[in-house]
Amino acid sequence: MGNTAWVPLSDEEDKQVWNRFKSDFKFNPSVEEFPGIVEPQESVTYSWDVFQSFTNEELLKLAKILATDSGWIYGLDWQHECFQFFPAKAQFDDPWKVSFPDGDYAIIIDKNLKNGYFGHPWEQTICFFGEACLDWLEQQTLDKELVIRSHSNSSSSYKDRLDY
User: Fold this and answer.
1) Can you give the pTM of this predicted structure?
2) In a domain, 157, yes or no
3) Can you give the residue range of the structural domain that contains 50?
4) How far apart are CA 120 and CA 159, in angstroms?
């Protein structure tokens, strides 16, 4: 039985969501110019070493938070098949079709393109953005030294708000 949690996007859906992402984030794929997107005002970018801190179970919890409004999120893998991901249908030990940049950009994002993360394979970073995603991130125990940059509308930066 196939994994019904990951449903491939049609060619038209794929084109539409990538066009929206490119427009909203000013996506500029490059092996030399970083960060590859205009990072949202509420975001924090970590070295991708932070991903070693997350279990599949924790990432599944994040996916469920991001899917609260619709029941699904996008799993976008640059130049590869992309998906709608239904986290309520997944088990924590199921393999992920898209999660970590493995030579191409990897994006996990809600249907409104407001909350999620952007993995950059050449800068070797993960940019987390949006209130729901950052709220989840603040509940994790992460190494502050892995923060590359952060953007915030609040008076203190995200890095300053982290409590260990």
Assistant:
1) 0.89
2) no
3) 6-152
4) 20
